[in-house]
Amino acid sequence: MKYLLDTHVLLLAAADYLPKLAKKYFSEENELYFSPASIWEIETKRALFSSYFQIDTEAFYAGLIAAGYKELPVTARHVLVMESLPKTYTDPFDRILLSQVEAERLYLITSDADIAKYHFRIIFLKSIV
């Protein structure tokens, strides 16, 4: 299976803080992807909230690549799919992740209850919220 990880799940995975239930998705037989939108979100939050959100974004990115995660570039097609998403959720980072999932027919692994309300290809890790 192919999974796109949302930003929070990526951060928890990097810190080795995933619950046992989630680890089945992180097996070698699955392909795990991250979006540049997650790197953008992390860097944005680091810049805006550096007093409590301290992360070396370059090292984080390098760690994802070293751990075998695959980068799923954002394309114009992904951006165009956003138009078909429900307008009820407005976070731009999450909207592009949902668009990538829809366009590429991936599953999104998230711990965000708002994202989990979408009905398509969402795996909600409720135990890590």
What does this structure look like?
With 129 residues, the chain is an alpha/beta fold. The protein has helices spanning 7-14, 20-23, 36-48, 57-66, 76-81, 92-104, 113-116; strands spanning 2-5, 31-34, 70-71, 107-110, 122-124. Helices cover 45% and strands 13% of the residues. It contains seven helices and five strands, in the order βααβααβααβαβ. The mean pLDDT is 91. The radius of gyration is 14 Å and the shape is globular.
Give the topology.
Layout: E1 2-5, H1 7-14, H2 20-23, E2 31-34, H3 36-48, H4 57-66, E3 70-71, H5 76-81, H6 92-104, E4 107-110, H7 113-116, E5 122-124
Parallel strand pairs: 1-2, 1-4, 2-3, 4-5
Count of spatially separate domains: 1
Query: How do the strands of the widest beta sheet line up side by side?
Result: 3-2-1-4-5
Give the overall shape. globular
* Strand percentage: 5-15%
Our Rg estimate from Cα atoms comes to 14 Å
- Report the structural category: alpha/beta
Summarize the helix and strand pattern as letters: EHHEHHEHHEHE
Average pLDDT taken over every residue: 91
Brief digest:
The protein has 7 helices and 5 strands. It is an alpha/beta fold and 129 residues long. Strand 4, helix 7 and strand 5 form a beta-alpha-beta unit.
Give short descriptive properties of this protein.
Rossmann fold, alpha/beta, five-stranded parallel sheet, 129 residues
